[in-house]
Amino acid sequence: MIQCTTSTLNVSLHDIPGRFVRQHGVLMRKYHATFANFICRFGIKGVLLDYAAEIVLPALSDESLVRTFGPHTSYFIKNYKLTRLGEPDAPVLIASGRFIKNTVLRRTQIYDPSRGLVPDSQTLESAPSAFFALILNNHRLVYFPETPHAPDIPTFEATVKKFISEKYRGFIDKLYKEQAHNLQKITKTQLRKQHAPPTLNIIPLTNEASIEEFIQKFSKLQQIEFELVKPNQEFDGHEIWQELKQYNERLEPDKTFVRTERAEGFDHKEAIKQINDAAASGNQRVRLKGIDADRNRLEGNNESFRVSTKITEVPDTQDGLVARLYQAFTNLLTSGAIRIGSPAEDVTSKIQELEADLG
After folding, report:
1. pLDDT confidence of residue 45
2. Which residue has the higher pLDDT, 358 or 164?
3. Which of 92, 115, 121, 126 is most buried as measured by Cβ atoms within 10 A of its Cβ?
4. Computed from CA positions of residues 158, 164, 166, 169, in that sequence, does the dihedral angle turn out positive or negative?
5. Could you tell me if 157 and 202 are in contact, meaning their C-beta atoms sit under 8 angstroms apart?
6. Secondary structure (DSSP) of 174-234
7. Sign of the four-CA dihedral 344, 346, 352, 355
8. What is the DSSP letter of 334?
9. pLDDT grade, residue 6 (50/70/90)?
10. Which comes out higher in pLDDT, residue 76 or 18?
11. How far from 145 is each of 60, 184, 285, 311, CA to CA, in Å?
């Protein structure tokens, strides 16, 4: 069952240029969906669902928010929608929308067979886009590039991080104004201690097969580095990472890295196993360094060995596309191609409260 709780999409997905190619009279989809962990936290205790209604969802739905990059490029979100899937007693809420890069392409010369390179200055407006579906129950993101040269996940992360920060400042300002007439006013500094500033990490999901495919490019894998990221609200079963996270909670560090090096190169099979154990659920950033068969330096991270799946049947409606992407996610989860940690016990109740708050 799908129930829509916010605005509808007024454009057909077939109206988007570059999404499809025609083959034998049939429109065929040519792109892939990728998957990531959307880790948004507010200090040590606050997680995404604690501030979804006040900060996170407004950051995704406010179409006046824009991130500029240079004089000719801007990023923004359009067609935000909240879709409800699942059963009445087990709702699944998915926030979706279109992430757009509005830019100007410039050229300075062309090649003419008779004259060679010829100066020719031209500009062309361009707006490549990606569709996103954020599953609020488990904070996993399905990211779906719609056009060639669509903005990537790191760009989406930087943009949403800015939007969330703007909504957080507005949230603090609102709390401050609401108690302005109190005899003992709370300062904004005190409010920021009560409601810690947000952090955002969007980490691509990986699996053993995708990790193995990338590691085979190394002649020598000489350095493996893990950056621990505290998850939203789930439990990862690997004991060593649990102990490190508990250690982190006591110290409250800004960042924690675990790095191991071997000049002769690590055994590939063991490296694949260890990296998969640490990174598959999307709670650690991984960076790899070494050399390839030609002795060139080779580096990679989660983006280099992320999991993706082909989407060949694209529905015409936004609700249909959300359902199709969610199905792709659950299929991979069921098959074991991706994994997530065990959810906290109160996730369902928080989703139901959020649904009630949003009407």
Report:
1. 85
2. 164
3. 92
4. negative
5. yes
6. HHHHHTTTSSSPPPHHHHHHHSPPEEEEEEE-B-HHHHHHHHTT-SEEEEEEEEE---SSE
7. negative
8. H
9. very low
10. 76
11. 17, 51, 22, 11
CB 141 within 8 A of CB 37: yes
Type of residue at 15: D
Range in 93-97, 144-148, 245-249, 286-290 the model is least confident about: 245-249
Q: How many CA atoms lie within 13 A of 97 on its CB side?
A: 21
- The answer to whether 226 and 285 are in contact (CB under 8 A) is yes
Could you tell me if 126 and 104 are in contact, meaning their C-beta atoms sit under 8 angstroms apart? yes
Contacts of 71 (CB under 8 A, 6+ apart): none
Token pair belonging to 37: 């962990």
Q: How high is the pLDDT of residue 245?
A: 67
Question: Residue 233 CB: number of other CB atoms within 10 A?
Answer: 20
Provide the 8-state DSSP code for 197. Answer: P
Over range 305-324, report the average pLDDT: 91
Q: Are 347 and 139 in contact (CB under 8 A)?
A: no
Residue with tokens 């429109």: 27
In this prediction, residue 5 carries a pLDDT of: 37
For the chain, where are the E strands, in sequence order? Answer: 3-4, 20-23, 26-29, 32-42, 46-47, 67-69, 73-87, 90-112, 116-126, 129-135, 140-145, 198-204, 220-228, 234-235, 256-261, 284-291, 297-301, 308-310, 342-343
Quick one: angle between helices 208-215 and 268-279, nearest 10? 140
121: its two tokens = 């200055």
Degrees to nearest 5, angle at CA 276 with 38 and 308: 55
Nearest to 11 by CA among 316, 301, 246, 227: 316
Q: Which residues pair with 83 in a beta bridge?
A: 4, 94
Reported as a pLDDT band with limits 50, 70 and 90, residue 11 is very low
